[in-house]
């Protein structure tokens, strides 16, 4: 008997291992922000914030916050040596121009065609897309980071998104608290599953086509 | 070099008339012209169209409102052209109640539409929004086998921008991520008013260090301490 326990930590840990030194990465607000805490010591990524910063550093110590230095979520951050600032047109030129390697963002729904929805629940909650549409349109690799199920227990991985789309067919990697998926050929390819889950259990609980490959395996992130 | 008038925040706010389109710099209140915003809230001018990255932050428990949020709370906007309203629940309430119109624009598209207005362009072609609601009603062009949306310029009547340093000629220098939309908006409006933390004499900013050329700026306002 497998029981689902939501874990943001495992999602952040797994995504942090995707990158290699020199990659330029944009981390969305919420869960994706935590990815930075788990990047292996030997790997140096360059964090971009779409409000106009390349080379984001850690959260400042209490009392050292600078009112003029925030991330795209409005949180105080720092800048690393070698970092730079720019206006919003340049920032999105960097993004749309294909100069960002990975964008990691949270989703309300992601589907097996690679579309994602995360900015609007009509008649209910309408936060707006912010930079997410540009980030998904322009980044080389779009990574969806999400708990596998929503609060009601429904699968957030879908055959087809039902909410208004943020991006059409742009997601190629999905990491949930059950496993690591590649999206291609209209299917979720489960490449890694996390303990205690099994491919069969994940397939049964996911409202989409999930397949395994000859190299799929169980992954331990301890 | 011609000196630009230094005016009060109240005088700046008085230049914003009912029905105008105003661009206000800042990103979740980082880099927003707070003294002029406070004066505009006091003036209470209504029927305005806002162009801004977002509607800033409103904490409904404490009543604390940052950036442009006090103007939203005051119901001074009949239209808001922004990329994000999620940190100010009053924005969505007014939208749902039909008290204001909210046009959600992808952030990079918003930046380019403002830039296009200031740079004499007839529009910009962007891949952002293809296959989403954002593309509805817009012209789609295929160039070299890639599809793009035609997005139109977004000019304004008055720009309210915030700079770290400015000289009496109107040359501006922004700080860190407080730059964001400010330099773009300074190119795109008929009247540009810069709220500046440190106003210095002409010659005290190295021309190499200027972010916004003085020619874009009409008035200076001393920022609060």
General description of the model:
Chain A has about 220 residues and is of the alpha/beta class. Chain A has helices at about 10-15, 90-95, 130-140, 200-205; strands at about 25, 45-50, 55, 80-85, 100-105, 110, 115, 140-145, 155-160, 170-175, 180-185, 185-195, 210-220. Chain A has a single domain (about 10-45, about 85-220), classed as Glutaconate Coenzyme A-transferase, CATH 3.40.1080. In chain A, about 15% of the residues lie in helices and about 30% in strands. Chain A has a ten-stranded mixed β-sheet with strand order 4-3-2-1-5-8-10-11-12-13. Chain A has a three-stranded mixed β-sheet with strand order 7-6-9, with no helix packed on it. The longest helix of chain A has 9 residues, at about 10-15. The two termini of chain A are about 20 Å apart. With about 220 residues, chain B is α/β, with parallel strands linked by helices. Chain B has a single domain, classed as Glutaconate Coenzyme A-transferase (3-Layer(aba) Sandwich). Chain B contains six helices and twelve strands. Chain B starts with 5 loop residues before the first strand and ends with a strand. The interface between A and B is large, with 46 and 50 residues.
């Amino acid at each position: 008997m497998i029981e689902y326990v939501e874990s943001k930590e495992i999602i952040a840990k797994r995504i942090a291992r995707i990158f290699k030194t020199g990659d330029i990465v944009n981390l969305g607000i919420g869960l994706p922000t935590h990815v930075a805490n788990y990047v292996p010591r030997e790997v140096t990524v360059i964090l971009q914030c779409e409000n106009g910063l390349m080379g984001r550093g850690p959260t400042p110590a209490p009392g050292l916050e600078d009112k003029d230095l925030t991330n795209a979520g409005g949180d105080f951050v720092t800048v690393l040596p070698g970092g730079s600032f720019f206006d919003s047109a340049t920032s999105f030129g960097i993004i749309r121009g294909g100069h960002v390697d990975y964008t990691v963002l949270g989703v309300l729904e992601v589907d097996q065609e690679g579309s994602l929805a995360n900015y609007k629940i009509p008649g209910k909650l309408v936060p707006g897309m912010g930079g997410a549409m540009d980030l998904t349109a322009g980044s080389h690799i779009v990574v969806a980071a999400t708990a596998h199920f929503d609060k009601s227990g429904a699968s957030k991985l879908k055959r087809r998104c039902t909410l208004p789309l943020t991006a059409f067919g742009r997601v190629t990697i999905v990491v949930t608290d059950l496993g690591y998926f590649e999206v291609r050929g209209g299917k979720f390819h489960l490449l890694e599953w996390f303990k205690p889950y099994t491919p069969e259990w994940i397939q049964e609980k996911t409202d989409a086509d999930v397949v395994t490959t000859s190299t799929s395996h169980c992954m331990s992130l301890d | 070099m011609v000196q630009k008038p230094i005016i009060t925040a109240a005088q700046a706010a008085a230049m914003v008339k009912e029905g105008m389109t105003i661009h206000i710099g800042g990103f979740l209140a980082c880099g927003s012209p707070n003294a002029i915003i406070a004066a505009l809230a006091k003036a209470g001018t209504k029927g305005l169209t806002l162009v801004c990255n977002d509607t800033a932050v409103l904490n409904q428990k404490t009543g604390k409102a940052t950036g442009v949020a006090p103007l939203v709370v005051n119901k001074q906007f009949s239209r808001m052209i922004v990329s994000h309203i999620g940190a100010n629940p009053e924005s969505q309430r007014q939208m749902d109640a039909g008290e204001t119109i909210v046009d959600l624009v992808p952030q990079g598209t918003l930046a380019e539409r403002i830039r296009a207005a200031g740079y004499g362009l007839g529009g910009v072609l962007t891949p952002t929004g293809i296959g989403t609601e954002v593309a509805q009603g817009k012209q789609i062009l295929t160039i070299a086998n890639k599809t793009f949306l035609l997005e139109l310029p977004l000019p304004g009547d008055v720009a309210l921008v915030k700079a770290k340093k400015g000289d009496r000629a109107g040359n501006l220098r922004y700080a860190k991520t407080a730059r964001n939309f400010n330099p773009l908006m300074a190119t795109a409006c008929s009247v540009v008013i810069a709220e500046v933390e440190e106003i210095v004499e002409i010659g005290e900013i190295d021309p190499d260090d200027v972010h916004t050329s003085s020619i874009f700026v009409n008035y200076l306002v001393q920022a609060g301490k």
